[in-house]
Structure formats: structure tokens, C-alpha cells
Amino acid sequence: MQTSVLFTARPKPFSPLVSLKAHYNTPSTLKTGESMAAAPKWAQKTITLPPHKRGCHLITPKILKEIEQDLSGFNCGLAHLFLQHTSASLTINENYDSDVRDDTETFLNRVVPEGQSAPWKHTLEGPDDMPAHIKSSMFGCTLTIPITNGKLNMGTWQGIWMCEHRDYATPRKVVVTLNGI
């Protein structure tokens, strides 16, 4: 059973009331043999994703397959994913309908133009280079996901995407760091 504690605070004079709800594990929610004073543990793995064509790709199954053994050892914690590239990005979004991924790619291509008429100075690696850097900055290269009872605690329709913003992609590396008890 989880217990809830409600904290309230007024960060600055005249600011609206901020409410935070904290959930704490009680002895009945801990795994057998685990104490409430369990020392935090860490696990880290670098996952290499094969080259993907330009677009947004659901990579949740690949990530889970690579970390499932370590992940199962955490009752409560955080999974941090870091993509080691500047022309691709990570995001969490729809995990069911691939049209959402296609529509997201269409949106990105309309918002960040490329080609001869684009205003970018940085074109050392081709006309898709600077647009890829901008798109990567828009979505970012990191994700933090809660871990609950040995699983990533995402919503039913949420999945991890790797968005490839280049025409000629290379393998991409994601460093996954797990921390918790």
C-alpha cells in the first residue's frame, strides 16, 4: 500500500498556492527482503540503434529488450536516456498509430525548412545538416522516465521515439542510466 502526503508551500509572497503530492513506499509495498533503508543502486548501458531512415521511429521495444534484466531489479527509481548525437532526438509520444510519427515528421519539415532557399549558413555536411541540428534541439536528446516495480512507468499510449533528422543516417547510441532502489 502506498501512503500519500500533501505538501503545500507559498514560494513567493502573493504567489498562488502550490500543492505537491508525494507517494512513499510502506513496508507492505517493498519486495521480499527489501528494507526501506535500501541503498540506491545504479545500472548503465549504451544501446546502439541501427541506422533508421529520416522520420520518427518507435524504439520502446528495443530499449526494453536491452535493459529488461537490469530494470527488473528496481522497485522505484528513474531511467535516464541520453542520445549521443546532435542530428537526431528523443521524445515520448503515441505508441500505436504510426500516422502520428509521420505527421510529426511532416510538421518538423514544414517548420524547419531546408534546401537552397533555406537561410542556414552551416551546410558543411549537406542541406539537411543544420535543419537536423535545429530539430534535435526542439525535441532534445534526453528523457527521464519513472521506474515502478521493475517497469518503465509510462502511460498506456506512450512510447519512446528516436527521431532521425538526416537523410543518410548512421547508427545512433543511447546511454540508459537506471537509478533507484
TrEMBL record:
Q: Which Pfam families match?
A: YjbQ (PF01894)
Q: Which SUPFAM superfamilies match?
A: YjbQ-like
Q: Which Gene3D superfamilies match?
A: YjbQ-like
Checking NCBIfam families in the record gives: TIGR00149_YjbQ (TIGR00149)
Full protein name: Uncharacterized protein
Organism, as annotated:
Tetracentron sinense
